Structures are given as C-alpha cells and as structure tokens.
Amino acid sequence: MIITILLNIFILLTAVPAGYFLAWLCKDELVDGRKWFKIILYCLFVILIGVLIFYRSLNVILAVVYMIIVTFIALWKGKDKKFLR
User: What predicted TM-score, i.e. pTM, was given to this entire model?
Assistant: First the structure.
C-alpha cells in the first residue's frame, strides 16, 4: 500500500521534468499555442471533475493530473521571455 502511494507520487513528480523537456523541445510552438494550452487545461479540469464524480479510477485520475501538470508547465514557460530565447 505505501509502496503504491510512493510510486504514484514518484510518477507524478516525473511530470515536471517531462513538461520542461517538452517545452524546451517546442519553444517556437509555445507562443503560438498559448490559446490551445488554455483550452486543453480547461478540458482536462472538466475531465478530472467528471472522473472524480462518476468513474473514480485512480489510474485515470493520475493520468489526467499528469497531463494537467505537463500542460501547465508548457503554458507557464510560454510566457517566460528568458526561456523563449
């Protein structure tokens, strides 16, 4: 039980370097896709609420939270002028 919780936390923590890596790979798309990142974040939050209410599967919840973290980092780095050079 504790090992499963620690493994889930570790997997969620890998979303941060994955988000930074994807943002670094796609610097030119970060500015143009800012509107789409906001739309994706909104849709992911709606999906997360739906999963929490109706489905309640931990694996699906973790996958959606992982995507939220990666998309939020891409949106956040798209506004950072030093990062986009």
Answer: 0.91
Q: Is residue 82 part of a domain?
A: no
The number of domains in the chain is: 1
Please report, in angstroms and rounded to a whole number, the separation of the first and last CA atoms in the chain: 45
Residue 19: closest CA among 69, 54, 85: 69
CA distance 8 to 85: 34
Answer whether residue 17 is part of any domain.
yes
- Note down the domain range covering 63: 2-77
Q: List, in sequence order, the alpha helices (H) in 1-85.
A: 2-13, 15-25, 27-32, 34-50, 58-77
Place of tokens 């798209």: 78
pLDDT digits 0-9 by tens, 41-54? 999 999 999 999 99
